[in-house]
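Minutes, structural biology subgroup

Action item carried over from last meeting: produce the C-alpha cell record for Helix-turn-helix domain protein (Pseudobacteroides cellulosolvens ATCC 35603 = DSM 2933). EB confirmed the sequence was re-checked against the source entry. Recorded below for completeness.
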Amino acid sequence: MPFTMGEKIRILAKRKKVSISELATLIGTTNQNLSNKLTRDNFSEKELKQIAEALGCKFEGFFIFDDGERV
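Output recorded by EB:
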C-alpha cells in the first residue's frame, strides 16, 4: 500500500533527523499547523517544495502523459 504524503514527510524528516517542530520552524509555520496538515494529508505543491528545500532534497509533482510530456 502506498504511503500518504504526510507519511512520506514524516519518514523524510526522521531520516534527516529533523523533528516536526523543527521542520515547522524551517518552513515558517507553527508546529500545530504542520501537525494538522500531516494528519489531514493536505499540502499545496508550494508547501511540498518548501518542505523539500528545508530538508535538503527536491520535490517533483507531475502528471506524465504516455508520450512523456509533464504537466
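Discussion: The chain has one domain: 5-55.
Next step: EB to file the record with the rest of the batch.
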